UniProtKB/TrEMBL annotation:
Entry coiled-coil feature ranges: none
A family per Pfam: HTH_17
Protein name: Helix-turn-helix domain protein
Domain HTH merR-type: 7-56
One MF annotation (Gene Ontology) recorded for this entry: DNA binding
Gene Ontology biological process terms from the UniProt entry: regulation of DNA-templated transcription
Length: 73
């Protein structure tokens, strides 16, 4: 059985990620993040491991296609 201590409420998750709660709601609606519902009150809950995975994904270095160097004149 999963412990509720493994989850963060929306305000806690937003602070953890450095975004607003509305951003998390939008990400949920767009399917970018998985939410869980509290069994008693239906509030949004976010698993810490899901938030960490999202942070890792966002923090991966961007690797654009290398551009050709400009020719010297």
């Amino acid at each position: 059985m999963t412990k509720l201590s493994e989850y963060l409420r929306i305000s806690e998750a937003a602070e953890y990620l450095g975004v607003s709660p509305n951003t998390l709601r939008n990400w949920e609606r767009d399917g970018k993040i998985v939410i869980h519902r509290h069994p008693m009150n239906g509030y949004r809950l976010f698993k810490r491991e899901d938030l960490d995975a999202l942070l890792r994904q966002v923090q991966e270095p961007y690797d654009p296609t290398p551009r050709r160097p400009k020719k010297a004149r």
